[in-house]
Amino acid sequence: MSSLGARRVRGPSAFGGDLRRTLYLTWIIGLTEYRLTYLGSALGYLWSLMRPLMLFGVLYVVFSQIVDFGDDIPNYPVLLLFNIVLFNFFTDAATKAVTAVVEREAIVRKMSFPGMVIPFARVLSGGLNLALSLVAVFVFVLGYGLNPRWTWLLLPLLLVPLVMLTLAVAMLLSALYVRFRDVGPIWAVLSTALFYGSPVLYAIDKVPEKYRQVYMLVNPIADILEQGRRWVIDPNAEGAVVAAGGGAWILVPIAVGLAVCALGVWVFNHEAPKIAERL
After folding, report:
1. What is the DSSP string of 6-67?
2. Which pTM does this prediction carry?
3. Which of 3, 10, 89, 249 is the most exposed place for a label (fewest CB within 10 A)?
4. Within a domain: residue 3?
């Protein structure tokens, strides 16, 4: 066998060499996937708004009307809807990214195609859903009777770390799934645990005070949701800084989030050239 015949099939690097082309491909593929999501659906893009609203309705009835879980939480319906929209963006985008590389095998094998476009496009598609859902959230907030506040303008400061964390997890899961198909069911369990382990259904006040600081330090999602509660819903809420212990302690969850981002980038970049031969 010749050396050419024995050569392994290796794909391109994660990021490719042309940033502008990479961003363009991400936008085109992400927009296409978003459109295909609702292709053939009678309600079409309305599902972007209806899915979180329907989930909110079910959870609100169960936890507020039946269990009386949110009676002592100010503006609980608004808090619940806001948290569901942000958390669903994270889990939905990451879940769709798990199988993304395998499903796009044909283009991943192309030597000139930057692999990171695949998980990034899934996150972009989820981001378009998030944008529409946030419009519904703020309409609901105003309809509920809350007055606009200048801190609403700070919302992008929460969305940036949320998107970065989602991109990192998407890259990590999509790269590992090529090698270990167990990643799919494992992530399904972990995302469910994270849903109940983050202040989505409840406020941080429900966490016993002796555990509260550790809870906030190890879970970047909790910090994002709690700070969003203070800026958007309840100005009297603790916020992430106070809940994390105040002062420099807030740097710990930031460091945890950055570590996850670094791990996701490193794993995908390390695995990208080998993905083609494993598919």
Report:
1. HSPP----SS-S-HHHHHHHHHHHHHHHHHHHTTT-SSGGGHHHHHHHHHHHHHHIIIIIIS
2. 0.84
3. 3
4. no
